[in-house]
Amino acid sequence: MYEDLPPDVERLDMLAKHLQTQLDRVREQWNTKGTAHGDLPGDPAELDFVGKWIALTLRRVKEQREEADTGTQPWRSGRPPGFVLQHVRTGENVVGKGILHRPDCPMADGKRLSWEDARLALQERTISVTEPCTECRPDEDLRAG
Ligand SMILES: [Zn+2]
Questions:
Q1: Average pLDDT estimate for 76-87
Q2: Cα 79 to ligand 1 centre (Å)
Q3: Under 8 Å CB-to-CB from 145, ≥6 apart: which residues?
Q4: Which pLDDT tens digit goes with each residue over 1-49?
Q5: Domain extent for 41
Q6: CA 3 to ligand 1 center in whole angstroms
Q7: C-alpha 100 to ligand 1 mean position (Å)
Q8: Centroid of ligand 1 to alpha carbon of 137 (angstroms)
């Protein structure tokens, strides 16, 4: 269970519906090159950022909904096929840092890594500073696997 989300199916359904509407509006904004909705960013990079966060939240709401319904966490079962290393700039003229994701994380955007490379990246910090994503928690998979 995500502590920041409601535990009951009714409110989760309501949230999911609302988020889906928002996501549809972001897509419309994207398809009309930022002209469809005055309350959404016109800049593609900002719009993409907003859309990713809405998608991420919607995914978590759906997972919570499934757990509320079935008492299981199916998205946590099974070994993911690998991981994704996202490169994030932390300032001008800086190498930046890496954020490791599960491949199904909506924020995952970058280079595919094998289990072994992902473990090395986190443990030995071979790729500058690598941190696990705080949403999809790939470090939990690596510890369990
Ligand atoms: Zn992630």
A1: 77
A2: 15
A3: 79, 115
A4: 888 999 999 999 999 999 999 999 999 999 999 999 999 999 999 998 9
A5: 9-75
A6: 18
A7: 7
A8: 6
- Domain for residue 65, yes or no? yes
For 26, the token pair is 């972001």
Q: 53: CA distance to ligand 1 center in Å?
A: 11
Is 94 within the bounds of a domain?
A: yes
- Is 3 a domain residue? no
Q: What is the pLDDT of residues 97-121, one digit of tens each?
A: 889 998 888 888 888 888 888 888 8
Q: Give distance in angstroms: CA of 29 to centre of ligand 1.
A: 25
CA of 32 to the centre of ligand 1 (A): 29
DSSP string, 31-88: HTTT-S-TTS-SSHHHHHHHHHHHHHHHHHHHHHHHHHHHS--GGGSS--S-EEEEEE
- pLDDT single digits (tens) 41-78: 999 999 989 998 998 899 899 889 988 888 877 666 56
DSSP classification of residue 127: S
Among the candidates 59, 75, 91, a domain finishes at 75
CA of 42 to the centre of ligand 1 (A): 26
Classify residue 110 by its DSSP letter: S
pTM: 0.55
Compute, in angstroms, the gap from residue 141 CA to the centroid of ligand 1. 12
